[in-house]
Amino acid sequence: MPSIYSFTSRTQAKKSGRRRLLPPTGKNLLLAGLLLFLLLPTIRATGGPELENRALESEASEPITPIPRSIDFDRAKAELGRELFHDPLLSLDRTISCASCHDLDSGGHDPRPVSLGIKGREGSMNAPTVFNAVFNFRQFWNGRAADLREQADGPLQNPVEMGMSREEVEQRLTADGDYRRRFRAIYGGEEVRFTAVLDALAEFQRALITPGSRFDQYLRGEITLAPHEYQGYLTFKELGCVTCHNGVNLGGNSFQRIDIIKPRELDHEDLEDRYAVTGKPTDRGVFKVPTLRNIVLTAPYLHDGSAADLEQVLSTMARHGLGVELKDKQIHDLISFFNTLTAPRPDFLNGAQ
Amino acid sequence: MGSMRGKIHLTIIFAFLVGVLFVYYLKETKEQTTHRLTLLSEITELERHQKTLQGELLRSGFFLYHNYDRLHTALGRLRTTLENIDDLYNRVGGGNDTPLATARQRYRQQLARQERLVNRFLTANSLLKNSAMYIPLLSRRLMLHEQETTGTYHTLLADLTSNLYLARNSLDPDLLPAFHASLAALAEHQPPAAMAALHQALLAHGRVFSETLPRYDRLLQAGLEPAAGRLIENMMKALENENRSWLGRLNLLTYLFFAAFLVSVALIIVLLLRAERENKTLNRLSGDLKTAATTDRLTGLANRFSFDSDQERLLSPLLLLCNIDDFRHINDLYGTAAGDFVLQRIAELLNNNLPPAAPADSGGAQCYRLGGDDFGILLEDSPETDPEQLSRHLLQVLDEQDFVYHEQPLRVSISIGISRQRPLLETADLALKEIKKHYRLRYLLYRDELRLQERIAANLETLQLMRRALANDDILVYYQPIIDNRDGRISKYEGLVRLRDEDGNILSPGRFLEVVKESALYPELTKRVVKRSFADMANCACGFSLNLAVADILDTEVRDYILQMLATYPATARRLTFEILENEGMENVEAVQAFIDEVKAAGCQIAVDDFGSGYSNFAHILTLKVDILKIDATLIRNIDDDPQARVLVHTIVDFCRKLGIKTVAEFVHSAPVYETVKELEIDYSQGFYLGKPHPNPLPDCQ
């Protein structure tokens, strides 16, 4: 408890300290200037370390870092990628688009436990959010794609998802005059190439970052958290959640197993886990740690969408991963903390279509 | 010469090639140096990132809460740096089988290994840390949970925690058996049902810890092993070796370029020396050629070519274009050898009699042979220069010369066209043509009036005017009274020709006579004047005079007409005086004399007109048995205040009186002149002061 107070009062103390260092509304401006000049080294000596400390605390010593305010991307490619992302032309029966399973109007994820592909075919995994996906160290639940470009290839050619082939994608887009012209303007060549399609889709998703959550503002020292939010963050650390959910995405940077203490029953035999990639028996049931960014918006949870809400997923994680039961207050605090991770929609989506 | 040019071309090509190669070499060297230096720094970077990765690995083990992104960032930087190295190495042209390429390849594999290792390590790391954290946490909760738990259970829990810390902090798998023992003992223990879940969780964490620790240790050791560092070191060494051998090649190339440069310089020196030698020969040759090109071979004079260039240099050039009269005749008659002889003599004469240089003139006069029989004397004009005087001098010199070719005397004369106006040759030639048209004219200064085209057009117009006047009977005679100085009364009239044009304007003879005189219309004009005046004078008792040109007298048709008129109207004839120009061609004195005799016989009188205007010849006066002498306007005009003119006129009057010749003063235009004329006892006066020409003479003078 005292830690909360000490933290919240720190900025105020610093502010008043600085005010004291400023010269009073002096009559003699010259004297004030001289005083300032003489005091300048002192200000640096006294005010400096304090600032640095805080910056260290919020940016470097915390295991979580804020999302950068902006990211470099090619606007023309991203606009093209946006169009492709929403175009059902990219599915075999022209029924679904990327946006069908990545709802950009909410959390960039699929609100259904598992996604449905063409002809209503049911997938095995819950489609994760595309927001901030660029910060993940690898893509897919089992990390089989190194980056967004590789990732885009997956759903396009997956028979239960969009069911296309490279040739079909190229043919359809080349046949469309508008696409052909836009691809030629950006990538050159008379025909649309599959790699260019992946690149445009990746560039679009690269633009989908959500800086500006309250927690990021807190990390940058811009605001303070409410007591229960701060308590939630402490609980998050004390329970050891942060051991895996760290970094800019609070996850997305290591492979882990959630049922290491109390094994869960696996829903499917053909689970796309880490084992499917490495073939090592120890990798069974191992998945990429998902991001907790915008976690409140992205229900249902877990790789199979088996946890319908936050309470459920928190109990599951605590029970199977840590071997403990959470108290209501802990769950309440954690959810308060999770709420600070929600950010406005990506800027790029608010731009003109 | 040809081989010389070939050598020069070869040298230029060689020097150019050396230059191009040198520029290429510089560019390559610069690029290579830059790339090799960058390569070196990139490998250093690789080493730095490698250390960062290992540091992060240690940190993630050491700190409970660690940001795993930092490891991935370090890995990403290693990948990027390695790509940069690949790119740079390709640019410096490194092969695929060099030691550096091999080291690079091996490092790439090592990096992939490291990446897999990091991923597995992070998994193990999270497991180990959470379990290591949860075992004491759960132990404490179990101890607090139920007071009734036995001391043995407490001891077992304390043992487990203590062994956990030993194993965790030493990371020594050898210490795990003790932990296993504690765990097994704890598993034997049967806690109360309420604590069963916590107890099971504790045991699970214990199992996770004991399973993970060896793996964790292995992965950490593998991550920290210096293999990657050694590979980087190898890369560095391989690069250093490559750089050394590259520098060796660079040195060799530098020597080669220096040698090529020296060869170029030597070649250029040799060529320059040779060119110098050939230049001397060429200068001599070109001097000879220049002389040949600017000199006429026959006469040794400068030729047309040098004339053209010389005349351009003069500010106000003056050209005397000398043409041999009837040169073709000489060639035809005596052969071209004689022609050549004449050309050479004339050239010599002209060249020896060049006008002296004008004071301000630097070049002086120069003589040229401009064409077949054309010679030119070109000089800078000056106010003191009198080209006509020069011409007369040259003509005189030539006239004094005898041209004798093989004992055969040749008649050689020249004409001189003079011009100050550019284009010199054309204008001087126009003047020459004009000369050839006029008998006796031997030199002429070109004036704009000579411009042929304009003159021809004007002449044609005048002739047309005359033709029309003749056809329409528009040839009139005006009569100017001649006053007897003794009583001031009209003694007689001088008939003066007038032409009336279409618009009724009366034109004076100055406007047309000169042109008509040269044409076939002239005899008709004379006849008309005679006829007209005879008709006019039928109603007048006064005497009258008519002007006759020598050409009229020599023209038989005109002469016969006049004689016939005289015979037809004998009364009129007796009142008629013929005025003949004093200075006009007296070559045919006999013919003129015969005419004079005949008209005198008919009762006519003879007057000499314009006496004193030219080469006045008293002898002629005597020969022609002149009755009246008309003193020229030039003598009369200013006689009132010109003592010299008075003396001259006095002499003439005196001479005439002694011979019984009457005198007439022309151009009496004022009272003082009239008074003077009377004073000098001139018999008659004529002029605007006394009476202007008028179409109708008074019927009777007396």
Give short descriptive properties of this protein:
heterodimer; A: 353 residues; mainly alpha; two-stranded antiparallel sheet; 2 strands; globular; disordered N terminus; B: 702 residues; alpha/beta; six-stranded mixed beta sheet; 13% strand
Short description:
Chain A has helices at residues 2-21, 29-60, 75-85, 98-101, 148-157, 166-175, 177-187, 194-206, 214-219, 227-238, 275-278, 310-322, 328-339, 347-350, and strands at residues 255-257, 286-288. Chain A is mostly helical and 353 residues long.
Give your account of this protein's structure:
The complex is a heterodimer of chains A (about 350) and B (about 700). Chain A has about 350 residues and is mainly alpha-helical. Chain A has helices at about 1-20, 30-60, 75-85, 100, 150-155, 165-175, 175-185, 195-205, 215-220, 225-240, 275-280, 310-320, 330-340, 345-350; strands spanning about 255, 285-290. In chain A, helix 3 crosses helix 8. The longest helix of chain A has about 30 residues, at about 30-60. The radius of gyration of chain A is 25 Å and the shape is globular. Residues about 1-60 of chain A have low confidence and may be disordered. Chain B has about 700 residues and is of the alpha/beta class. Chain B is built from 23 helices and 17 strands. Chain B has helices at about 1-60, 70-90, 100-145, 150-170, 175-190, 195-225, 225-295, 305-315, 325-335, 335-350, 385-400, 425-435, 450-470, 515, 520-535, 550-555, 555-570, 570-575, 590-600, 620-625, 635, 645-660, 670-680, and strands spanning about 300-305, 315-325, 365-370, 375-380, 405, 410, 415-420, 445, 475-485, 490-500, 505, 545-550, 575-580, 605-610, 630, 660-665, 685. Chain B has an 8-stranded mixed β-barrel, surrounded by 5 helices. In chain B, strand 5 and strand 6 (about 410) form a beta hairpin. Chains A and B meet through strand 1 of A and helix 2, helix 3 and helix 6 of B.
